[in-house]
Amino acid sequence: MSKYKNTSKSLVVFLIIVGLVLLGSLYSKPAKAANEYLQGGNGHCQSATLSPYMEIGRSNRDGGYNYPNSNSNNQTNTENGDNWRFGLRLDIPLGSTCTKKYKQTMLQNELLKQQLEMLKLCARYQGLELSDEFAAVRTMCSGVKKKKEVKE
After folding, report:
1. Could you give the CA distance from residue 114 to residue 106 in angstroms, rounded to a whole number?
2. Residue 36: what pLDDT?
3. Would you give the DSSP letter of residue 36?
4. Would residue 132 count as lying in a domain?
5. Residues 108 and 125 grouped into a single domain
6. Given its phi and psi angles, is residue 135 left (phi above 0), alpha (psi -120 to 50 degrees) or beta?
7. Does residue 33 belong to any structural domain of this protein?
8. Does residue 54 sit in the same domain as residue 71?
9. Which of 117, 119, 107, 114 is nearest to 145 (CA)?
10. Could you tell me if residue 26 is inside a domain?
């Protein structure tokens, strides 16, 4: 009988925990981004890239190539020498959706997002006198002024 008491106590505790989690999820609010303009989603657009690389390894007598972290006994052999390999690696993504028109549109969208974010920030800090540490902000926001209202 005591076996069922422990099981029922565990079930009650489990149901209370599940209930608290569900109750907490009802009252929680979704997180919002700090700046809504600069949320990018252009990760799929990749062009061909050319990148340099360097590899250091140890060659063995059999013509094989051992990397420094491998557990080979040939690494301690004094007849083996270090090999340095330098080169250029060309990566070309297959099936890319990037076209010239798409890239141009994305660049225009990024410029627009940056300008909207600057407008928002400049309006927020317009009345402040900015020191030399904020010279870039002062320069970028110098042309942002409220439009003068015309009284009729």
Report:
1. 12
2. 54
3. S
4. yes
5. yes
6. alpha
7. no
8. yes
9. 119
10. no
